[in-house]
Specification:
260 residues, seven-stranded antiparallel sheet, six-stranded antiparallel sheet
């Protein structure tokens, strides 16, 4: 099944959105809850899976849905279709501060491996499934476990990352990366986990016990602010966790103390 050919425009800097322009009868699929707005000619429907597995019948659809359940994502994906006359637009927003990257899967040799919460939207015809990590160490210590998402097709896909996203192209060399900073990589990249260094560095270096190693030939996308790191900082500074009170040292702090 060939993917629909969609046009798009990405807006914003640190809180981005992507606006997709659909011709009549064209469809874009998206994770549930990511839609920002849509024009009158757009209709949407929640369906089991991505729609690309329907060619394999009910069994193929159920297998695809079962794989999505393993990633912790919703069993349903939302299909947005232009049922009107002329071009119509639908927009999707990033779930937290960061960047949206548009990737042509045809240029990525038809396959992209990404972290399980990176996928935002894609042209209909894109197959969204899982990639099981074959290495035991990578599964236990790789941050994303044994399960990564696999996007397959020949159309446009949109992924999201926290902070700033950077693209690197490997031509046989090896790149060592914090496990949470990996967003996506092409199928020609080998993914493994290695110890961060000596015992002292592992325990007191602040970089975690393990680092991911990426090697081979292909492109890699990295993020500067993994959501897990952002969440840890917020929790560490929350009053209930022993952190500083909100608005400390400000007029807001004095007002909150007075109201208490």
């Amino acid at each position: 099944m060939r993917s629909h050919e969609i046009d798009y425009q990405i807006y914003g800097d640190d809180l981005q959105m992507v606006e997709v322009e659909l011709d009549p009868r064209e469809t874009v699929i998206a994770e549930a809850g990511t839609m920002m707005y849509m024009e009158p000619g757009i209709t949407f429907e929640a369906k089991l899976g991505d729609g690309a597995s329907s060619a394999n019948g009910l069994f193929g659809t159920l297998m695809n849905v079962g794989k999505r359940a393993l990633t912790g994502e919703s069993l349903f994906m939302t299909h947005f279709t232009n049922q009107g006359q002329g071009k119509q637009k639908v927009a999707f927003a990033a779930p937290y501060p960061g960047k949206i990257m548009a990737i042509d899967l045809d240029e990525a040799n038809g396959t992209l491996i990404c972290q399980k919460d990176a996928f935002l939207a894609a042209a209909l015809g894109t197959k969204v499934s899982i990639a099981l990590n074959r290495r035991l160490g990578s599964g236990f210590f790789g941050g994303e476990g044994f399960i990564l998402q696999k996007l397959q097709g020949d159309g446009m896909a949109f992924i999201h990352a926290g902070g700033t996203m950077i693209e690197k192209r490997l031509t046989g060399e090896t790149l060592r990366v914090d496990t949470g900073c990996i967003v996506a990589f092409e199928s020609g990249i080998n993914y493994d986990i290695q110890a961060a260094g000596g015992l002292r560095s592992m325990m007191f270096g602040g970089e975690g016990l393990f680092l991911a190693t990426l090697s081979g030939h292909g492109r890699v996308w990295l993020q500067s602010l993994p959501f897990s790191r952002l969440a840890d900082r917020i929790l560490a500074n929350a009053p209930s966790a022993g952190g500083a009170s909100s608005g400390e040292g400000s007029v807001l702090k004095g007002l909150s103390t007075f109201l208490e």
